[in-house]
Amino acid sequence: MKKLIMAAAVILAASVSAQAAQKIITYDQSFKPGVKAAIKWLGGSVVREFKYVNAVVADLPDHVKDASIYTVEGVKDVSDDTYRRWIEAAPASLQAVPLPSLDSALRTIREATDLPGLPEPKADAAPSAEIPWGIARVNAPAAWDYTAGRGVKVAVIDTGVDFNHPDLAPNYKGGYNAVDPAAAPLDDQGHGTHVAGTIAAVKDGKGVAGVAPGADLYAVKVLDKNGSGQYSWIIAGIEWAIEHRMQVINMSLGGGAGNEALRLVMEKAGEAGVTVVCAAGNDAGPVNYPAKYPQAIAVSASDSADKIASFSSRGPELAVIAPGVKINSTLKGGGYGALSGTSMACPHVAGLAAIAIGAGAAGPDQVRAALKGAASGLPGLTPNEQGAGLVNAFKLVR
């Protein structure tokens, strides 16, 4: 019996040592066949290839160290395809939303457009119970007579979307599941559905309306029910958005370090004309990846008093600030609720990007310039806290 136990232990130890470690290997394009052959020679296998980035995901035995992979001719970078949590709840994330009174909301709209030569917003553009405070604060209703972002393609790269939600279904056009490519990109966590509602929930007199209630929504599921995912899932999601000619990407996710393949795919998105809007982060520290990349429009979070949210990350990478505290939006299962975070600020700006495109901005450089040009600094906040400031949607269309 003792010999049997020892033999079983040896077999188990051998099996553990032979477990595969998943790596993202970037390479010089001209060496691709040799790199793939070397992976096989090392006892590994390629489990995912990318279309726009010279990289593969490979399963390799644990005993194969990064230093060995770097000796392969043409290899430029090796990184762990880490499975990690990419969304973090901010404080007070599940509190009820104190909706502003109609008088208060109307005053916000008037003050935001109190400029010489600008017409007053029409009464039917005023916020109501359907218009969350953040949508009113960026003055989105004042832009809808000109454009509601109709037909602009927005990819929500997140946990998926509940595309059966009555406020999202009319604008939902399809998507992709990078976690399980054989499955629909249905939200099993809730985060992506909330984000999608802030971008483009329909204005139908019920529930909530998004910043750009005419935009086309695409769900790109890169995170699982735990809000976690691998780098390769996010890269694959961005590649899908490039391939399917999305005009705006919303990534309300972040954390950890970047890696070479993620950096490259962000570059490719920019080159393809995709505007990428990213949440700055919720750790009150420096801006997280992928918002830290220069192609990203990085967004910090403000509260209803126009102060920076205590949890919001900050830094020189910030482009603008947007409402991110107690934001009411769609929940999976057909309901509504409030969440807080730069994850909630980010989709306000993705919706504003859709309005900018609807008003004629073409490509990420023009969209970024339009957003910054329509922004005003919030009193008491530094550029490292708010970038160019809070965007007024009406200025995007006038």
What does this structure look like?
- The structure is a single chain.
- This protein has 398 residues and is an alpha/beta fold.
- The chain folds into two domains: 2-81, Alpha-Beta Plaits (2-Layer Sandwich), CATH 3.30.70; 102-397, Rossmann fold.
- Helices cover 30% and strands 21% of the residues.
- It has twelve helices and 17 strands.
- It has helices at 2-17, 32-41, 66-70, 102-112, 133-137, 191-200, 231-243, 260-271, 342-358, 363-373, 383-386, 393-397; strands at residues 20-27, 45-49, 55-61, 75-80, 83-85, 153-158, 172-177, 216-221, 228-230, 248-251, 275-279, 296-302, 318-323, 327-330, 336-339, 375-376, 390-391.
- The protein has a seven-stranded parallel sheet, with helices on both faces. The protein has a four-stranded antiparallel sheet with strand order 2-3-1-4.
- Helix 6 (191-200) links the parallel strand 7 (172-177) and strand 8 (216-221).
- Helix 6 runs parallel beside helix 9 (342-358).
- The longest helix has 17 residues, at 342-358.
- The N and C termini lie far apart (84 Å).
- The model is unreliable at 1-19 and 92-127 (pLDDT under 50).
CATH domain fold name of the largest domain: Rossmann fold
CATH-wise, what's the superfamily of the largest domain?
Answer: Peptidase S8/S53 domain
The N- to C-terminal Cα distance equals: 84 Å
> How many strands?
17
Tell me the strand order in the biggest sheet: 7-8-6-10-11-12-13
Major β-sheet profile: 7 strands, parallel
Specify the overall morphology: globular
Q: How many structural domains are formed by the residues?
A: 2
DSSP summary: helix tally: 12
Approximate helicity band: 25-40%
Chain-averaged pLDDT: 88
Order of helices and strands: HEHEEHEEHHEEHEEHEHEEEEEHHEHEH
Structural class: alpha/beta
Query: So, CATH architecture of the largest domain?
Result: 3-Layer(aba) Sandwich
Radius of gyration based on Cα positions: 23 Å
- Low-confidence stretches at least 5 residues in length (pLDDT < 50)? 1-19, 92-127
Q: Hey, roughly how much beta strand do the residues contain?
A: 15-25%
Would you state the CATH class of the largest domain? Alpha Beta
